[in-house]
Amino acid sequence: MPPHLPKTHLLLRPPLFRLKAGEKGFVRVVRSGKKLPDDRESMFWLNIKGIPATEYVPDKNVVQFAINSKIKLIYRPAALKGNTPESYAEKLQWGKEGTSVTVKNNSPLYMNFSQVSLNGKNISGAWFAAPFSTLKIPVQSSLSATGKKEITWSVINDYGMSGKKYTAIIQ
């Protein structure tokens, strides 16, 4: 790819900067012009690393921490304006496959789960189902027993808050 063409869909402005103590910085996320699907959301990860400034002091022991933050960025095309995760959350299709719970997302949106539980027991993890895909969530032996299983879930809304809880029975 020629060096003047973008290699990614999003660009950061500025990509790197220095802050003094007490200062605030802002990063602007800009589309590069590279085409994105217009029938579904696209998800990207923004990794931000904060490295503290240091002064060399001879013969002194110091402990220093660097902070790394990983942030989900979800791009929703104009064709999906008005669609929200809450409007599709109840339509998710749950099932089981071996030692995993499966969730089929037939929507054009990412479903980011704030909570998933099986028979009242929370399934830990940061789970999300991509548009038009099936997610497998590994669980402990609770699926091996016969009978109905109750799955409860809630999705994260556009404001980053946990939405309404939904329940389904899986066989």
From TrEMBL:
Its main location: periplasm. Residues 103-160 form the Pili assembly chaperone C-terminal domain. GO terms for cellular component: outer membrane-bounded periplasmic space. This is Pili assembly chaperone. Keywords: Chaperone, Immunoglobulin domain, Periplasm, Signal. The lineage of its organism: Bacteria, Pseudomonadati, Pseudomonadota, Gammaproteobacteria, Enterobacterales. One of its GO terms (biological process) is cell wall organization. It is found in: Periplasm. It holds the Pfam family PapD_C. Belongs to the periplasmic pilus chaperone family. SUPFAM superfamilies: PapD-like, Periplasmic chaperone C-domain. Residues 7-80 form the Pili assembly chaperone N-terminal domain.
